[in-house]
Amino acid sequence: LLDNELTAMLSESYSRAYESIVMVQMLSELEETIDVKRNPEKRRIVPSVWWNRLQGCQRSVEDWQRILQVRSLVLTPDEMRQMLLKFASLCRKSGKLAVSRRTILTLMDCDPDSSAPVKLPFERPEVCYAYCKQLNCEGRRDLALSQLQLLLEYGFKKPATLPAELLSLKARCFLKLGQWSEQNLINEDSPNVEVMQHYMYATELDSRAYKPWNALACANFNALLYYRQRAPIPLFQCQNDNGDSPLKPLNPNLLVPGTVPDDSVITMYAVQAVKCFCRAVMLCHGNSLQDTLRLLTLWFDYGHIPEVYDTLISRIKTVRVETWLQVIPQLIARIDTPRHFVSHLIIEILMDIGKNHPQALIYPLTVASKSSSSARRQAAERVLKHMNDHSPNLVQQASMVSDELVRVAILWHELWHEALEEASRLFFSDRNVKGMLDLLNPLHALIERGATTMKEQSFNQAYYRDLKEAQELCIKFRQRGNLRDVTQAWDLYYNVFRRITKQLPLLSSLDLQYVSPKLLKCKNLELAVPGTYDPSRPLVCIQSVQRSLQVIASKQRPRKICINGSDGQEYWFLLKGHEDTRQDERVMQLFGLVNTILLQNPTTCRLNLTIQRYSVIPLSPNSGLIGWVPNCDTLHALLRDYREKKKILLNLEHRIMQRVAPDYDHLPLMQKVEVFEFALEHTPGDDLQKILWLKSPNSEVWFDRRTNYTRSLATMSMVGYILGLGDRHPSNLMLERMSGKIVHIDFGDCFEVAINREKFPEKIPFRLTRMLINAMEVTGVEGNFRLTCEKVMSTLRANRESIMAVLEAFVYDPLFSWKLIERKC
């Protein structure tokens, strides 16, 4: 029976067959149990074999419980201690507190909550530690704190005689004691001496553990921020040694409240935070982005202080070069800082990266070398010159490929069209003649340098004479100041603008032979395919670039380009001009951290709530490559195709509103709402729901896709809310064909800038229209959507320090801070 069931289930999907596989494992272990009963010698090896097997199971409370029940037939609770403690932890994280409590009490052989006073079994400290965590999860925090203090006092011998496992456990106890104490003091702003001491003891007991160093680093960082913003009270002093010793607390009784110390207190905290973050980054085996960004914040804000600079010089050498690869955009954004100590160290690190991982640095550094800021350009060129000493071919190829891709991204026709449109606004609306001339002069200089491609030659043949005549009129205006000259120039400019406007819609494809022959001749380069470099994987270089480029019919007319890799694969990209892609690059950093956090949590990991990411490679301040997300369609395209097949007007809802109220824009608010609701009542709004059904081969695939759609929509709704993401129209939302997941693109409007728009401000936290809701399950938002939102938000809130570290890097990044200020103004 089981064989037939398992065969049938496996043919459908692994998830359908998983329960049967667990049943097979239980039967197998039942046989092993009988063998152990017959042959007691096997009892010694069975626990370790079963533990390793349990690690391969899904983190499901029900499955683990059934498996452990079988194992309890032959093993005592003490022999199953490791398994039961892990099971209790799984139960706590899954919200099964009653099951977790029963499991721990089984290991304790007593109930501390009984009427008779019972002493905790301190001879089994790991069980007592689990019991303390159980109390904290149940909301009995004061009791958990006191019991943990008792465990630390009576549960461990002197550190010199403890084995490594117990030293590590004691360190975890001090770490947890510090965290719980910090939670109890959440309403107090000032740093707490006792909390820092707990973290310090944890680092001393287990100097190879990441979490204690991270906690101590964050405590010092927060204390630094506190004393920076308020009248500080010095709590710690540094020992005058090589920096290896931990913080040394001052006597709190000697502190005078309200004392305003000199800058040495700020310096001390900055030094200690740098030491701890460097150590944490070095020990981190997962995603260290949040710690690295906090370290960069200290570096950029306090690196000009000699003591902090000396600490950075000595400690940064202990950090692996690979760690800096994830924050290259932030390093390059500060490459032109006026602080000499800071810029000198940044350039040194970039040179190290360039020497060890030139492929990772070459693209962003090439962008910086094209900056309009002379200081930024010179700093980038200094690093490029150093790279040129050991990788001359790579530097030359990167410069050529980058220049040619920018040339293809923005043709002269588009460049002049965009510039003339902006210049007309400056001249006719703002009456800013100087601004208009300053905008057009670089373009005149560009065409004077001569055409290098056949497409540019055709542009000169069509427009050079008119543009040259207009330029001469502008030069006359500069000499004589007669406005009539500029007016005559605009007659010529407008003629050029009108002809280009007619020509641009005909641009549906490009041939590299005409727009970039150099790119067409690129063969077998040393340069990596953009966005593919990973130090842990084989290098994929550019073998060639496919000749034909498709021009996407949209406002900015991006190109779809294909690069052939040396591994035989095709790599598709969206080549975008007229748009700064560096903000999208930073958003991908945030999504990478969010994915790490969601994968670390058993619940969110099991639900597959990761966000779809793609590579973003800026090529210049206003162009870049976006990795093409395969097997995806925008919601707009899906709805358009569906309605065309069903003979439904694409803008049916708008047509109904216009028929009911032709002067809709001039109606009072209540009447607008009435007309809007009328349109909703007379249209079903189930297009997306039917699309999901019609595109699924069977009901099981449809069910999986609908579930994935709902969960991915909920995940990105929460992350988008935190990021303040706007402009979520159907062309910026994509549906993955195979999985049904929602994929977001275009992250130009972040930090709630869309709320402050003059026209159509977005006051909503995230997009959740009726068409999106109707595509969910029968309960709408009251089901998977709400549950996923709550799980994602609670998981992100539990890791708020990490999220805030990335968001702070956004706000204080000089590349974007001016944009935020400009939008506020």
Q: What's the quick description here?
A:
The protein is α+β, with helices and mostly antiparallel strands and 825 residues long. The protein is built from 36 helices and 12 strands. Strands 3, 4, 5, 6, 7, 8 and 9 form a 7-stranded antiparallel β-sheet that branches. Strands 10-11-12 form a 3-stranded antiparallel β-sheet. Strands 1-2 form a two-stranded antiparallel sheet.
Kindly describe this structure.
The protein is α+β, with helices and mostly antiparallel strands and 825 residues long. Among the domains are: 159-319, no CATH class; 321-390, no CATH class; 412-503, Four Helix Bundle (Hemerythrin (Met), subunit A) (Up-down Bundle), CATH 1.20.120.150; 632-824, Phosphatidylinositol 3-kinase Catalytic Subunit, Chain A, Domain 5 (Orthogonal Bundle). 61% of the residues lie in helices and 6% in strands. The longest helix has 27 residues, at 454-480. It is globular and about 100 Å long.
Query: Number of DSSP strands?
Result: 12
Helix percent band: 55-70%
CATH architecture of the domain at 632-824: Orthogonal Bundle
Strand content: 5-15%
Distance between the termini: 72 Å
Q: Report the structural category.
A: alpha+beta
* Tally of separate helices: 36
Regions with little confidence, pLDDT below 50 for 5+ residues: 231-261
| Quaternary structure type | single chain
Provide the gyration radius in Å.
Answer: 32 Å
Pfam family, one: FAT
InterPro entries: DDR_Repair_Kinase (IPR050517), FRB_dom (IPR009076), FRB_sf (IPR036738), HEAT_ATR (IPR057564), Kinase-like_dom_sf (IPR011009), PI3/4_kinase_cat_dom (IPR000403), PI3/4_kinase_cat_sf (IPR036940), PI3/4_kinase_CS (IPR018936)
Protein name: non-specific serine/threonine protein kinase
Domain PI3K/PI4K catalytic: 545-825
